[in-house]
Amino acid sequence: MSESRTIKAALASSDELAAPGKSLWHRIEPAALGIGSIVALLVVWELVPRLITLSAGTKLFFTTPSQVAGTLWRLFATGEIWTPLGVSASGFGLGLLLSIVVGLPLGVLIGRSRTLNDMIDPFITAFNATPRLVFLPLVMLWLGLGLWSKVLIVFIGALFPILINTYEGVRNADKVLINVVRSFGAKEWDIARLVVVPNAMPYIIAGLRLAIGRAVLGVVVAEFFGSESGLGVMMVQAAGRYQVDVVFSGLIIFAVLSLALTAMVQILEQRLSRWRPVHVSE
After folding, report:
1. What's the domain range around 80?
2. How many domains does the chain have?
3. 8 pLDDT tier (thresholds 50, 70, 90)
4. Are 31 and 73 in the same domain?
5. Exposed, middle or buried, 135 (CB in 10 Å: 0-12/13-18/19+)?
6. 8 Å CB contact between 242 and 174
7. Average pLDDT, the chain
8. What is the pLDDT of residues 131-176, one digit of tens each?
9. Dihedral over alpha carbons 192, 197, 203, 209 (to 10 degrees)
10. C-beta of residue 87 within 8 angstroms of C-beta of residue 147
């Protein structure tokens, strides 16, 4: 037993000695590869129309990264983008916030209560399997073309990833640990707060990451088909005028919004997962 511990300690110390030469590249490798692939794509995209002669009709539907960058600069410099961006961000933020407020506690409840799960599960399964676009005519009929119809579409899209992942995380919580805490006289609230939710955190974070994508999709769908203002409306209007650079500018803004929020969720996951032990491979 002592020999195996000595061997593991020696291996750990040797890894620590070898780490300084590789640690910097290992830290920046994911970002470097991701940024490198994006830069390569942009370079190829920029060079293709310069190396290949395009007809006038083709040029009408084509643009380059430099043109998109110039359009983005103009939209932000003139302030033309701020109003539609604010409208889209409001619908996105409110809808996502409501889905978190409803989805997290409801997921914990149905995960801890078999009776409640049996009552609600048919509705969750049915609504989750239904395309979000189906709800749009009803939402427009009930709430019109304003902000709250957009909020509801985003809420419907983002709710189920959070709800289902939270439920799965609660159901997979450590039963032995729950029984130990219960044996010390802990109430159901204490069990959920101290054991169930921390154990379910990886599932919850995964649900949040999925919900961000669904929320962005909900904003785009609502603004493409049932809204009077917003970034999606601006893209539709630009497409009708063959302003491809403006359409790509809106697409890039949506993509950057998704990436920024996903990065924030990853930072949150790292902070909330510090208590987890690091497993040493044999």
Report:
1. 62-272
2. 2
3. very low
4. no
5. buried
6. no
7. 76
8. 777 777 777 777 777 788 888 888 988 888 888 888 888 887 767 6
9. 130
10. yes
